[in-house]
Model the fold of this input.
Amino acid sequence: MDENLITDETRDLMEERAAVYEFLSIAFGEEVPLAFLASLRDGAPALDGELGAFVASLADADDAALASLRTDLAAEYARIFLGMSRSPVAPYESVYTSETGLLMQEARDEVLAHYRREGFAVDEAVNLPEDHIAFEFGFMAGLARKTAAALDAGNDDEAQRLLDVQAAFVADHLTPWVPALTDDVAARAKMGFYRGLASLARDFVAAEADVLATE
Done:
């Protein structure tokens, strides 16, 4: 990363990036929590496409309607990601990048090493391999927040180091497989939320790769 990226505007950018990564981490990581849906209804971010249309449709939903929608989304999540269909999606980097197409391959070991170096801990109670896409998105959110904190502290060298870590992680551990993952999710999704989520993830990672590699 070019040191010219370390500007006053960078801190705001880090917070915005962290918010998107956190959104993606939650949405890919579990059946959508009711509180998450309520937060979208009550303070919807600006989103485009099918995801934007979905969020806009929540504006007039009362609590009962929101709970019913949450049930439908939970069923959709289970069908796509939890094996409740003939061709579920396995949201793990190893499955998409290893020659064997199996869990717990080299990619998992590599991302775990990244997490440990940066003090990022995966909740062991979740009991999922560390290269789950939700964890990788969560890791990027944490790095962006740490970068903002470094800038607040006037530690430009640490901020630059963290930006370089993010650039490498996007290049090595998001770009190689997120497009294929999101294509699979979009192909299997019946609800606009998950088709829109796939589109957001694909486009955001592509934009991240461009910005982090060229700035």
In short: Residues 192-214 form the longest helix (23 residues). The chain has ten helices and no strands. The chain has a mean pLDDT of 92.
